[in-house]
Amino acid sequence: MITRSALIYLSGREGLKDFATRFALFKKLTTRFIAGESIDEAVAAIREINHRGCSASFDHLNESVNSEAETEAEVREYLEVLQHIDETHIDSNVSIKLTQFGLDIDRELAYRNARQVVAEAVSRHNFVRVDMEGSNVTQATLDIFKRLRGEFGLNDVGIVLQSYLRRTMDDAKEMLKIPARIRLCKGAYDEPPEVAFPDKHDVDENYVQVMQLLLSSGVYHGIATHDPKMIDATVAFAQREGIPKEAFEFQMLYGIRRDLQEQLARDGYNMRVYVPYGKHWYPYFMRRLAERPANIWFVMKNFLKG
Ligand SMILES: Cc1cc2nc3c(=O)[nH]c(=O)nc-3n(C[C@H](O)[C@H](O)[C@H](O)COP(=O)(O)OP(=O)(O)OC[C@H]3O[C@@H](n4cnc5c(N)ncnc54)[C@H](O)[C@@H]3O)c2cc1C
């Protein structure tokens, strides 16, 4: 039986990444979770998502970049994405990762690169979400986000918090003081028990508590989950507290629980779909398998079917 930790471990293996991404054969396996390799393919996927009543967030797949030139190419890609969003009139913002912009090389480089993208988004009346990565970069990510938020507005740049981290309730309170727009998710990396709750029950309980704090804050936040229990808890809390549907949004990943995405949109909730695209799909794809190892059989079955 392949475990979550084993799949997350494999997601970080460079050798496997190079092997898998070189062969078109493997690419075919990814189509359920990844919208294609080019901006145009992602735009086409987002048009369809918009047609289903949902908004989107572009994610150009890449992380842990260790060459400065490559981080600059990532900035150029995002500037192009923002231009495409404007020109095609699709309903989408963008999500970025700071290790994609050089956080593992130099924090100032990551800050400068992220700043360029946020400034471009602001000039186009769009919004940048800074994704949260492993706990080794949580503090650095929050520090850079706070700098960006100091220079730009509440509706220009937002952050992500992960309910599996023990520190998250404190971080949420600190971020709300700024204030900041937060995407709440459970967390997708393999973390030691000192920093993250090992028990799913505690992760879920923390999720509900942080969700309640966010929804009560009066700021527009993103509740990112496919878990019907978390969704029901959010809907029930909002109804009980008289928080209107348009005061927050649900968020889900491309290709996961499309039925639930459509149901929530039909029920009048704001629903945003996170749309990853690009050549560097390997770590993202492996994390999706890790969340639900049954997906391995799902993708293999589709693959064999042709
Ligand atoms: C919009 C969005 C943005 C995110 N951004 C980040 C981020 O910045 N940083 C970060 O660490 N994590 C991020 N994540 C991932 C997140 O942390 C979780 O790993 C992921 O969402 C699975 O958790 P869950 O809340 O869906 O609940 P889980 O308890 O994992 O799953 C609940 C149910 O959802 C369904 N489900 C969940 N995952 C899958 C899957 N892969 N395939 C099929 N069904 C599935 C299953 O029915 C499962 O029983 C993001 C998730 C979303 C939706």
Word description of this protein:
- By secondary structure, the chain is α/β, with parallel strands linked by helices.
- The chain has helices spanning 4-11, 14-22, 24-29, 39-51, 68-88, 107-123, 138-151, 168-177, 200-215, 228-241, 258-266, 282-291, 294-305; strands spanning 55-60, 92-96, 128-130, 157-162, 182-185, 221-224, 248-253, 270-277.
- It contains 13 helices and eight strands.
- Helix 6 (107-123) packs across helix 7 (138-151) and helix 9 (200-215) packs parallel to helix 10.
- It binds flavin-adenine dinucleotide.
Beta-sheet strand percentage? 5-15%
**Helix-residue proportion:** 40-55%
For the sheet with most strands, the description reads:
8 strands, parallel, barrel
Return the string of H and E elements: HHHHEHEHEHEHEHEHEHEHH
Q: Look at the helices and sheets and give the structural class.
A: alpha/beta
Small molecules in complex: flavin-adenine dinucleotide
